[in-house]
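Try it yourself: sequence plus adenosine-5'-diphosphate, in.
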Amino acid sequence: MVVALVGATVAALVFVGFLFVEWKKRRVYSKYMDKIAISIGEETGAPPLYIYERLRKKLNELEQRVIETERERRNVFTILNNITDPIIIVRGDGVVTFSNIAGRDVTRPGVEGRKVYEVVENYHLLEMFEKALQTGELQSGDISLAVNGETRYYDAKIVPIKLDQESERYIIVLHDTTKEKQLDKLRREFISNVSHELRTPLTSIHGYAEALLDDDLSNKDLVRRFLGIIESESARMTRLINDLLDLEKLESGEAKFNFTIVDMYQVVERVLSIVKPIADDYGVQLTWACEGEKLVHGDFDRLVQLVLNLVDNAVKYTSIKESGEKKVIVSCYETEEKVVFQVSDTGPGIPEEAQRRLFERFYRVDKARSRKVGGTGLGLSIVKTIAEKHDAKIEFESKVGEGTTFRVIFNKPKLVKEERDDASI
Ligand code: ADP
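Structure, out:
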């Protein structure tokens, strides 16, 4: 009996103990449930399943947001990498934290993680960085960097920004100004060339006019000779100004091109009627071979100008050759796809070192020689511009003492090609 009583008591105690442990567990469980509910902004005491559902939703939202942030971060990098100006971001301790692709082209390899002093090869830019560090103010200046073996010019800016209380970044932005610099140089060269070109005939005109004014004008021959010089120098100036205006109109696109189907034979015929008497005068034998229709798509007057400049050069420069035969041959022929206009001469030829610059404005192989024939140094620039407008290619070969051949290669007009193809079916 006693044993049974003790047994029942122990069982009751174990049961109570169990209940107590269970109660304790539940309390801890509901305490944590409440904590979870508070942390996700729900009321305490809500059913666990409800809390679970809310928690799951919150976690999903959070995951979505992390994915979104990562996508945005990647987008920012893609945008920065696609900006063609170099952008380099540097920490206050001088370590580069980011460089876009363009930035990597202007710095030493492995730019990210290295000190800016190690990767940037420009003393002035580093000085600007030092100054931005000291003053916390935007710095700007012009710098030059060696990029792939050539010098490029940049407008550099260093923008200090504060990210939070302890960290700051220095954004180096470089804007490539090489093209502007080159254009500026060309513009200055152009002005200096034009002034020089105009000054020479003007000085001459002024000198001879002054001499005439000081003279008693009794020597008619002398007066006539001086007036002749004044006349030819003014004609030279007029030619120069006309060529300049023409070139400017052509290059600015102001010149209107009236594109039609043009027969190069007729172009050549027109040019020869102008140049033949001059060639005869100069003792240059001018022959041509341009049989039958040679059709191109172009502007008749501009093509006459192109051919005239080339044939006129050939006659003029051949005429001043001191010895040997003086011959100019003009021809046009066609290939499967092209129509070719060609002018060959037995003139003095063009030295190899000068050939690269031949189409530059005002470039002359021999200033005295060009002056002698009344050249302006603009003829071939005009030829080049007109050829470009016609989508035509210019080729030339020349050998000093033997002569020069210029070739302008036109695409055949579509219609002509189609007709020919049809005919061959
Ligand atoms: P220019 O008005 O001086 O003739 P161009 O632009 O027409 O100027 O030609 C540039 C230079 O190229 C000339 O000064 C001349 O030295 C050279 N040149 C052009 N055509 C010939 C040629 N057929 N034979 C020899 N030299 C030539």
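One thing you can check immediately is this: Residues 2-39 form the longest helix (38 residues).
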